[in-house]
Amino acid sequence: xxxxxxxxxxxxxxxxxxxxxxxxxxxxxxxxxxxxxxxxxxxxxxxxxxxxxxxxxxxxxxxxxxxxxxxxxxxxxxxxxxxxxxxxxxxxxxxxxxxxxxxxxxxxxxxxxxxxxxxxxxxxxxxxxxxxxxxxxxxxxxx
Length: 143
Known about the structure:
The structure is a single chain. This protein has helices at 5-16, 32-43, 49-69, 86-114, 132-142; strands at 75-76, 84-85. The chain is mostly helical. The chain has one domain. The chain has a two-stranded antiparallel ribbon.
């Protein structure tokens, strides 16, 4: 059963997380991701659902990275008994972005090798994971 548009957006928010304009994590539905997900989703109208989801994740992850990068490298989460530096969060989001870029390329390459049309990519259910040693090369090729 295919996910509804609302379910895909909820999944994106769950996977990406959210932050305020200062790059601090929040979960109250007023962050950069939650308030821009509809705009980003609509930007890719006409794309197949899998690519559309991946492009949205990519764009929203980049939005979070830009917010984290705008502020000083301070410890966050102290009120929760945690101490995580913003640079650590930025690094984690960069790794998340790298994984999404690899997924985008894998879907595109898989479609090209299969001779699938753009609409047929929706029917792909699995993507062979890329070995860690190949990941860096894939990401570099995308840049």
